[in-house]
Inverse folding.
């Protein structure tokens, strides 16, 4: 089933923001991917069905893909298929391609940020951030320096917070740590599964602006799952809307890239029109569910 | 006063340090008072409980110097502790890494499950005749008794602690590049193997005194066993720790995240093992708290039994507190139970 691409759907639209690298395969491509759990048992469920999409490897910029959909429609499944995490990986049928090659295992080139942060409790902030470099065998002094730099970039206070343990941090601070430890590895793809879902609205706006700023710097392709329509429209270059379970891509919007702080941009009329439009689609989906 | 009683019936109202200690002292005072009332009276006929069944508080305390100096209770306590420490260290050295592996590699876990179930369900009392048959009457029997009594539980709890680490930590580790690194595993496991070998050969050296130089045949066999122990120790340590140290997801994530729980369960199991050792010491032991209790029951004074029990409780409490303090230092990011 081909997804309906609705460019020019919302007054603030444009074509892909940069030309694709000539000759390069798409960075992520799903070809009719279906995932079923419990195949052959009485509890067989189809999580996603025939999901097909292409995200091009753009020249010098990464695309920001926001994924919306009713709960249980397979958003996490899609992210975890790209990451290569069991039990969602491998797909039951279809192909998940990364740089034109089938995904075979998780790797640091595809970083993931979880809703529950998953900061390592036994490590201080700095050791959490340095974890990936440590696995690579980067010498201690070098990785500590790099980690301090990233602690600063996610706007934690290196002097005050760097040697704290996760249990001494607030949720927003822990998510900053999780983002820092992912971005320090310069991943080409960043997978974020409702990363701000557990944060209060004010913290959330700050985190959104921080993410935009950092994303410009690392130029990675981001897949961002969220329940918050405004968040998806603000952050995304593109918004995918999944159908009810089993999920498949129903709509695809191009939206304007974030060029102002979240609080400001979210007040503007065209922005709000887009949000309402998408929310109507989602509400219709939620209703169709029961 | 009213306020004070109200706090006693407030759910989960945590008392301050002093108030908590006062409640505990109140309990001790109450037990002593009941004991005193039950055994008060000049003559046996005046007392509620006769002196053979339960000596009075005063008589019991009077016998303390006797227990301390003539019976040398401190030395016996040291022997008991040494035996438990020996057997329990062995149990931890095998049970902990095996448990970590069983919870990481689930087929190995399924493979070991029957032994784990069997080991946890052997009646402790049955281990006494068995170890006597296998290891004779000496110290080896007592150490192996503690080892066999506790290793299955150490294994089970360690495995449970690792299973309790949420999958998302492991997923995070993979996306951050945690991988298999044979070189780190080889170096680390070689060191652990050497440590295991050193400890086992030393234990063998002390538990089975080397025969004199005249007894050529016995001595040759002893030396063979000595080196055999060393080799076995190295192989054991290496095999158990190589996979743990080589797989970064285990070494850097699963093991450290499970470690506070593992140490906590070791603390609880050590307390149990300290109780078990008395069982083995009742039979043919020169020293040991169990031996003292046994001797006091047969030859008197019976007051020593009660005194020993109190000393055992105090010692166990002190050890437990010590380990809790250690846990707080080792794992500042984890709260240890307040009990
Ligand atoms: N490990 C699993 N075992 C069985 N079913 C699963 C598993 N993970 C997800 N599912 C099912 O797959 C569907 C999609 O799940 P998920 O991708 O987590 O949804 P979303 O993230 O959109 O809320 C749901 O119906 C869920 O019950
Ligand atoms: Mg989800």
């Amino acid at each position: 089933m081909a997804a309906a691409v609705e460019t020019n759907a919302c007054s603030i639209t444009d074509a892909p923001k940069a030309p694709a690298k000539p000759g390069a395969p798409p960075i992520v491509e799903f070809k009719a991917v279906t995932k079923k759990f419990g195949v052959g048992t009485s509890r067989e469920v189809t999580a996603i069905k025939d999901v097909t999409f292409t995200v091009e490897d753009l020249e010098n910029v990464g695309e920001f893909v926001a994924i919306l959909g009713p709960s249980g429609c397979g958003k996490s499944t899609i992210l975890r298929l790209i990451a290569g995490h069991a039990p969602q990986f491998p797909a039951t049928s279809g192909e998940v391609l990364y740089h034109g090659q089938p995904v075979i295992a998780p790797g640091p080139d595809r970083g993931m940020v979880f809703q529950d942060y998953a900061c390592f409790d036994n490590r201080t902030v700095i050791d959490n951030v340095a974890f990936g470099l440590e696995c690579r065998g980067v010498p201690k002094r070098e990785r500590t320096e790099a980690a301090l730099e990233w602690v600063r970039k996610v706007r934690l206070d290196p002097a005050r917070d760097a040697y704290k343990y996760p249990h001494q941090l607030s949720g927003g601070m822990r998510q900053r740590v999780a983002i820092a430890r992912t971005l320090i590895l310069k991943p080409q793809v960043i997978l974020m599964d409702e990363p701000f879902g557990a944060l209060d609205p004010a913290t959330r706006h700050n985190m959104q602006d921080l993410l935009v700023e950092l994303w410009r710097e690392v130029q990675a392709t981001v897949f961002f799952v969220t329940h918050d329509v405004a968040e998806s429209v603000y952050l995304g270059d593109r918004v995918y809307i999944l159908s009810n379970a089993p999920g498949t891509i129903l709509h695809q919007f191009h939206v304007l890239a974030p060029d102002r702080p979240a609080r400001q941009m979210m007040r503007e009329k065209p922005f709000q029109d887009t949000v309402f439009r998408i929310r109507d689609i989602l509400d219709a989906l939620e209703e169709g569910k029961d | 006063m009213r306020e004070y009683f109200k706090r006693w019936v407030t759910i989960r109202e945590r008392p301050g340090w002093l108030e908590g200690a006062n409640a505990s002292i109140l309990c001790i005072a109450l037990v002593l008072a009941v004991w005193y009332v039950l055994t008060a009276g000049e003559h046996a006929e005046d007392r509620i409980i006769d002196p053979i069944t339960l000596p009075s508080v005063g008589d019991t305390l009077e016998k303390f110097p006797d227990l301390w100096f003539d019976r040398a209770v401190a030395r016996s306590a040291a022997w008991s502790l040494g035996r438990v420490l020996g057997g329990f260290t062995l149990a931890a050295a095998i049970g902990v890494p095996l448990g970590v592996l069983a919870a990481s590699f689930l087929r190995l876990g399924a493979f070991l499950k029957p032994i784990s179930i069997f080991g946890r369900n052997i009646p402790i009392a049955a281990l006494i005749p068995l170890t006597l048959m296998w290891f004779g009457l000496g110290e080896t029997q007592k150490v192996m008794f503690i080892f066999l009594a506790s290793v299955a539980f150490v294994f089970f709890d360690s495995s449970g602690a690792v299973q309790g680490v949420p999958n998302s930590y492991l997923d995070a580790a993979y996306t951050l590049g945690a991988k298999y690194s044979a070189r780190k595993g080889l170096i680390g496991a070689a060191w652990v193997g050497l440590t295991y070998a050193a400890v086992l050969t030393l234990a063998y050296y002390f538990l089975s005194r080397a025969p004199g130089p005249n007894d050529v045949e016995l001595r040759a066999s002893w030396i063979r066993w000595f080196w055999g122990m060393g080799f076995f120790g190295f192989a054991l340590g290496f095999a158990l720790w190589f996979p743990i140290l080589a797989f970064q997801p285990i070494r850097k994530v699963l093991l450290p995240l499970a470690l506070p729980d593992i140490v906590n369960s070791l603390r609880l199991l050590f307390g149990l093992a300290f109780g078990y050792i008395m069982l083995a010491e009742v039979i043919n032991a020169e020293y040991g708290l169990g031996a003292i209790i046994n001797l006091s029951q047969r030859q008197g004074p019976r007051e020593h039994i009660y005194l020993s029990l109190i000393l055992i409780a105090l010692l166990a409490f002190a050890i437990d507190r010590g380990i809790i303090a250690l846990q707080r230092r080792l794992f500042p990011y984890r709260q240890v139970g307040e009990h």
Remarks:
- The CA atoms of residues 22 and 214 of chain A lie 26 Å apart.
- Residues A 37, 45, 47, 69, 71-77, 87, 245 surround adenosine-5'-diphosphate (ligand 1) (CB under 6 Å).
- Chain A touches chain B at residues 83-85, 105-108, 110-112, 114, 116, 118, 120-122, 131-132, 134-137, 165-167, 178, 181-182, 185, 191 (CB under 8 Å).
